[in-house]
Each structure stands twice: as C-alpha cells, then as structure tokens.
Input
Amino acid sequence: MKIPACATKAYDRKRQGSGFLLALLLHRKNNPRGMNQSTPELVIDRVSRNLSGRTIIEDLSLTLDRGEVLGLLGINGAGKSTTLRMISGMLAPSSGRVTLGGLDLYANPERARRDIGYLPEEPPLYGELNVEEYLRFCARLHGIAKPAISAAVEKVIERCELGEMRRRLTSLLSKGFRQRVGLAQAIVHEPALIVLDEPASGLDPIQALRLRTLIRTLAEDHAVVLSTHVLSDVLACCDRVAILHRGRLRHSAVLSEIDAGGALRVQIERDVDTDAWMRMAMVASAQVIDARRWRITLKRDSSAGELAKAINDSGFGLLELRADNNALEEIFVRIAGQGDTIEAAA
Amino acid sequence: MSTIRLVAANDIKRQFAQPFAWILLALTCALLAWQFLIALDAYLRIAPKLDALPNSQGATDLIVIPLLRSLSGLLLLIVPLATMQSLAGERRAHTLPLLLAAGIGNLRIVLGKFLGAFVLVALIVLLAACMPLMLEFGTALDLGRLAVSTIGLLLFAASLTAIGIACSAWTAHPALAAAAALIFGSLLAMIDMGARFQGIDNALINWLSLSTHLEPFFFGLLASVDIVYFLLVTLFALLLAARRLDSLRTRG
Output
C-alpha cells in the first residue's frame, strides 16, 4: 500500500506508535472524498442539455485533472456558458453525468459544489457591500470555518491585488477590479475546480495580462476551466483546448501538440499550385491559406533550412518562413465556419 | 442552519445599507403615528360620555385594535415592497449564481431570504405594537389582547412575506414581483368577501381567507387552527419558491 505524502509527513512529525494511524486519519480529513490520485478531478460524461425544446449541448464528454487549464473555445452561442453552468452546478444536464472528484454533482450537490469556485460572465457582486465584507460573506457561504475566514480573505485579497480597494463598495469598482473581485470570490475557499466564464472580457491589455498570469498560478494547485472566444487567452493560459460549435465538441487537443505539429508558414512572391510544393522532396503536405501564403508540413527528418533552399532554387521568391503558431486559429476558424464532425480527441 | 442565518444576515445588512428600508420604516411609522393620534384625540373627546355608559368600550377597543387592524391592511402593501428584491433583485443583478453554485440547498436559500425580509416586516409590526403602550401611563390597556393581536399580525405578516418571496422567485423583475405579491396577498385576504356579502361565513371559502384567521387574534383569541393556517400558508409559499429555484436549475 502506497502511503500518501501528507500522511508520511504527519507520521514523521509524530514519531510515535499511534502516529501512523493519526496520519492516515489526517489524510482522510484532507482528502475526505477518498479520491484516487489517478481519478480525473472533473469528468463530464456524455452530457446533453435541452432548453425550451432546443438542444444546447449534445453528447459532450471531457475530463480535467488538477494542475490543468482547459480552455473552452467557441463563437457566441456555441454552448460554452451552458457547459460552464452545468459544471458549476447551476444547471442540471438533461442527460449524462458530471462528477467532481468522483462525486456526482447532482446526486451530492451540496458536498460536490463546495469544491467548485465559479465566476460567471457577469461577476456576482453585491453593490451594497465593500470588497472585504463581500469576500467575508463569500468565504462563509463556501463553508470556511469562522476562525479561518480572516486569513482566507487576506490571502485572496493579496493574491488578486485588491488591497487598495478593500474598503471600496463593489458598485463603485471599475470593470477590471469587478472582475478581480469576482475571481477572488471564486478562489477564496481554495476549491479543487475553478470555473471561469469569459474572465478577461472587458479588461484592458495590462489587466488581461495580469489575469492570465494569475490563472497560470492558480493552475498549480487547482483544475481550471475557462471559456473564451479569444484565442490569445487560450494560447497564453491553457494546457488543453476544447472547441465547441453548435453545442457539440468539435475538437479537443493538448495545446502543445497543436503547436508542435511541425508546420511552417511560408509567404512567397509567385503564384504556385499545390503540385509545385509536392514536387519538393521534403514537403509532406501543402495547404493554401490565401493567394501567396501557405501552410507547409515537412516530412520527418527534414528541416526548415532545406525548405528555404528548395524555395529559392525553384524561384518562388521567399518573403517569409516561420513556425506556424496559428494552427489553433485555423482549426477554430474552420470549425466556426462549418463542419459537423469531431476532428480529434485527446 | 448557519447558511440560512448567513443568507438572512446578508440580506438584512444589504437592506439597511440602502435608504429604501429606512424610508419604508419611517413612512409606515409616521402614517401609523398619525392614525394613532387621530384615534386618541377622538377617544379623548368621547371618553367622558363613555364613562357614563355601562360596559362601554375602552382605549384598547377604540384605539389599539383599530390601529393594528389598519396595520394589517397596510401590510398588504408594505410586504411586497420588502420582498420584491429578495430573489428577483438577485436575478436582475446577476448575483443569484453565487448562491446557487455555493452548495447550499434551494430551501435553505429560500428560508434565508424569507428570514431576511421578515426581519424588516416584523420590525414594522413590533414598532406599531409598541406605539399604544404609551397609553399605559394614562389608562389601563388590555395587554394580553395587545400581545395576542401582535402575534396574529406577525403570523399574518409571515404569510404575506412568504407569498412575496414566492412571487419574487418567479420573475427577474422586482416591480412585477411586488405587483404579483400584492395581488395574491390581497386575493387571499379578501377571497371570502363575496360570500360574506351573501351571509355565508362558515364555508371553505371563508376558511381560506387570511382575514378570517386574523380577526380572532384581535379579540384576544389564540386558536391553534389559526396558527396552523398561517404556518401552512407560509410553508406552502416557501416550498413553491424553492420549487421555482429548483426549476431554474433543471429548466434553465
């Protein structure tokens, strides 16, 4: 039997015969759901949702582990917010199951939801309360014991850089600070899962940058799901991406795998066709982006230098050659444009 | 229980952080004080003549009970104003997700909201009930009857508050919630009016009326059937509100 790390630490501290038992009890207290470490934190299993006779989400399956950030990408009306509302326990699925740490979110709603921090698209702020009063209320609402509230609130105020605003009424805050207070209420109780609906909407570039950094920091200890239609947010924050379109999962992949596809973006002076590229020995595939821009995938063991030489030898007139960072954008644009099949599953 | 108290305390704090609750409280007290002084003045004018009559009515009958009866009518208007924001306001301000996603049950949210609104309403009733106590300096009041009437008014107010909360759960527009609570509260208070005009006063329709069960309290009668009636109306309305929150989760 493998003894959990927190249990062995407690055992070392006690160094007594009864210490081991106490240590296991402590572990049970720290891990009340008795979760297997290999169990994904969040499991969405064949979830569908109908609203007013219309299918909003159809047969959606996803998993998420602690330490991961999943970006839900989709155009407006794709079903992102509905998915997040189901994950957060706000909305029950019409069919399928959502489990958090092995607990069904609707069979054990009160226990499971204590482990979720949810920031809706519009931060749920009470305008009559100041920032500190509001966060104290949220801390108690999420089940933090009275003696621990002050420490939790101080920690989250520091984490979200709200110190200057702590006495200000939430109704008087700017959009950026409202968003930060909203995020603070979602993490004040250190939930296992943090659900963020369009967290960067309405933020200026500096605020958005800070928010991304904060989300990355949060991902060290939590599982994070965020919805957005801003690709740069996904590229900056997420480990995995799931693209929704018309309520269906159209693409799911690990972000690093999308970027590490070996594709190159090439801009040339001449108009050429696909056959011209395919005649080059190192080219595996060539896909036109627009008139003189191409997305080229190289064969294994070929290099960009070889391609550059071949382009020059062919007289195409090389203007630009760089790694293709826009693979996600292309996938997104293609899916948003149309298409009804699931592209990949990771 | 602690989450119910938490939701209630938050609502009370927010209510009294705004001028609305204070203005409502001040205007209601001013109106009742004005009625009280008019009734007192009228009583003082006829008091010498009443002394000469055998078994004549005293200050309790002629000042205190009319004041409290008048308050019962006023509550039909005031309570919807006190409850309209409780859930409809949360929905309009997009703060309801905070409660729904926090892992507290629908009934607990509703009970917290009910307690939060009832504190303001109960304060109005208790302030109105305290007003006639100053007559104790000049005359002997029937304090038992005053106490029973106050209990009756509190139960009546609790029923109206629960109806207000149920209406507030049904819509995201506080004004619509207030209008619906006023209509349903008034309807339940006057449902037997037509029957009474036709001399029917012991039928099921009379039993359904809020007024039928409030009136005995004004005579100092503390009947369990009336208490149970008010508790049932309150419970039924609160369950409807909880059901509505549940349907918000399941139907969206």
